[in-house]
Automatic annotation (TrEMBL):
It is found in: Chromosome. It comes from the Bacteria. Residues 115-131 form the Post-SET domain. InterPro entries: Post-SET_dom, SET2_Histone-Lys_MeTrsfase, SET_dom, SET_dom_sf. SMART domains: PostSET, SET. The keyword Transferase applies. This is SET domain-containing protein-lysine N-methyltransferase. Keywords: Chromosome, Methyltransferase, S-adenosyl-L-methionine, Transferase. One of its GO terms (cellular component) is chromosome. Residues 1-107 form the SET domain. It comes from Candidatus Korobacter versatilis. GO terms for biological process: methylation. Its main location: cytoplasm.
């Protein structure tokens, strides 16, 4: 199977397949340095986006590099993530046609404001945010109560395996 990076209507650049992919196929591994969560707090202070991926029950964070970092979020994805033996794989949830952009639901968590992670996937049932449903509910509850998270330094949200 061949993967290429090119312009995406979802966000900047995306990862596309050049050949058909069968449902259940491990498409690409999410790779990069593995860090402790506390080491990520200041890592991207000067950047609007990160490629941080929480794994092993949030005991480790992958600072994403490589092809998988270009797989964009969608509320109607064709892939999902799966943590297998200390590795995070992006796996096809259905058959994927050549030239199709690969996507998965980022399920962002540990946010401060729903507006921090808007979704631009264009799906019919788009949530409008890349946060997972539980995080959306938590952030809405905090907003209704007039309570905003106020850590000493703003944390960047992490992705979570589905």
């Amino acid at each position: 199977m061949g993967l290429i990076i090119r312009s995406s209507r979802i966000h900047a650049a995306g990862c596309y397949t050049t050949a058909p992919i069968k449902q259940g196929t491990k498409v690409v591994e999410y790779t990069g340095p593995r860090l402790k969560p506390q080491d990520c707090v200041d890592l991207y202070d000067d950047s609007g986006s990160t490629y941080l991926f929480g794994m092993e029950g949030d005991m480790l964070v992958i600072d994403g590099h490589g092809m998988a970092a270009f797989v964009n979020h969608s509320c109607d994805p064709n892939c999902e993530t799966d943590e297998v033996d200390g590795h995070v794989w992006i796996v096809a949830t259905r058959n994927i046609a050549p030239e199709e952009e690969l996507t998965y639901d980022y399920n962002l968590y540990d946010g401060e404001d729903l507006n921090d992670a808007p979704c631009h996937c264009g799906a019919k049932k788009c949530r409008g945010t890349m946060y997972e449903p539980e995080e959306i509910a938590r952030l809405k509850r905090l907003a209704r109560q007039g309570k905003a998270k106020a850590p000493a330094k703003k944390k960047k949200p992490h992705r979570r395996a589905a």
